[in-house]
Amino acid sequence: MSNYKTETKCIQSGYEPGNGEARVLPIYQSTTFRYTSSEQMGRLFDLEESGYFYTRLQNPTNDAVAAKICDLEGGVAAMLTSSGQAANFYAIMNIVEAGDHIVCASALYGGTYNLYAHTIKKMGVEATFVDPECTQEELDAAFQENTKAVFGETIANPALVVLDLEKFANAAHAHGVPFIVDNTFATPINCRPFEWGADIVTHSTTKYMDGHAACVGGAIVDSGNFDWEVHKEKFPGLTTPDETYHGIVYTEKFGKGAYITKATAQLMRDLGSIQSPQNAFLLNIGLETLHLRVPRHCENAVKVAEYLKNHEKVAWVRCPSLPGDKYYDLAQKYMPNGTCGVITFGLKGGRDAAVEMMDRLKMVAIVTHVADARSCVLHPASHTHRQMNDKELVEAGVQPDLIRFSVGIENIEDIIADVEQALR
Ligand SMILES: *Cc1c(COP(=O)(O)O)cnc(C)c1O
């Protein structure tokens, strides 16, 4: 980890050119790498030496960008994935086997919920979902003999629940398992979950990190703090010989790099969800301005939330940075400088008024995305959750009238003027 401040890390971390080399991180647009000795290539395949041989496993552009994200989060090792979904899949699959179990906070991104509730279940891994506001006792009760990890989102998409990171970290550690946090919405600008006891952080870099809605991508970062050896019997994949690499033991050979090395050497090798170097290059350009964009997103979001709160046609507004919000205190504790640019609200006219208002927006666009420079809206009841009736929507924690508003970094007066004319 470098000693630079966050703003400097956004720009300088990850890539340091040598004399006469490209100042800007080059795109290593190459599937493969040349060696003059066949023996050296053999050593790379045995993980005896580190180096590049095939982009599915490692690529210098991707590694530089992963190193920057690692530095921003304060971790020891990181990797990029093709999407946030791949990151959350690998983060769990790297430490579970059929017959294992995980504990998840129930307020999750829909894709992640499907992944953990249904897809990994078909692979023999069960998840128990707990209310993020459960008591310590209720949380403890969710653990089983075969529990291998605890998972949650810093700020849940789209429920905007702020997770009590310390409560979940303590419970995970009391049961000898790591705490994995999806830090997509907060970004390391507003929250670094490792400082609150998280062991592994994941990202959908598709959102604020890229920031321009140009590339789908993901990342996994390891804090290096979880001691797999102390809980050897729970994590045989990391602490016993890997026969596919001549019997190396990841924790013995790679120490604090064990988790990311295993995820690269086994999961990337076998499942192949790599990020393209071209996308990593664009992600890196996004990261260079992350520290400027995130505070502006947050500032604009609070102003839109305040405007909506005072509007006669608005029934309710959710923004964890707004005093009076249910999660205001937790947000102040974990993210005193701001939460994210996404807010949600409902209109007194309900579902029909929501649809009409959205159709009347001129600049703010209706898109299936959040967390990029452009303001956008989505009505889950008509879009992502449209197969559900109103009763099912409420059970899933999505009110039928809920509008998700991802506030961009346009001039705030223009954003509010558009909302104002649409509401009128
Ligand atoms: C979007 C999102 C994901 C999924 O990421 P993709 O890059 O779309 O695969 C995961 N978690 C959160 C919190 C997200 O917002």
UniProtKB/TrEMBL annotation:
Cofactor annotation: pyridoxal 5'-phosphate
- GO MF, any single term: cysteine synthase activity
Q: Which positions carry N6-(pyridoxal phosphate)lysine? A: 207
Catalytic EC class: transferase
Q: Which UniProt keywords apply?
A: Pyridoxal phosphate, Transferase
Please indicate if the UniProt record lists Ligase as a keyword.
no
- Supply one GO CC term from the record: cytoplasm
InterPro entries from the xrefs? Cys/Met-Metab_PyrdxlP-dep_enz, OAc-hSer/O-AcSer_sulfhydrylase, PyrdxlP-dep_Trfase, PyrdxlP-dep_Trfase_major, PyrdxlP-dep_Trfase_small
Please indicate if the UniProt record lists Iron as a keyword.
no
Identify one Pfam family in the record.
Cys_Met_Meta_PP
A GO biological process this protein is involved in?
Answer: L-homocysteine biosynthetic process
Question: What's the EC number here?
Answer: 2.5.1.49
Similarity field: Belongs to the trans-sulfuration enzymes family.
Protein name as it appears in the record: O-acetylhomoserine aminocarboxypropyltransferase
Q: Which organism is it from?
A: Mediterraneibacter gnavus
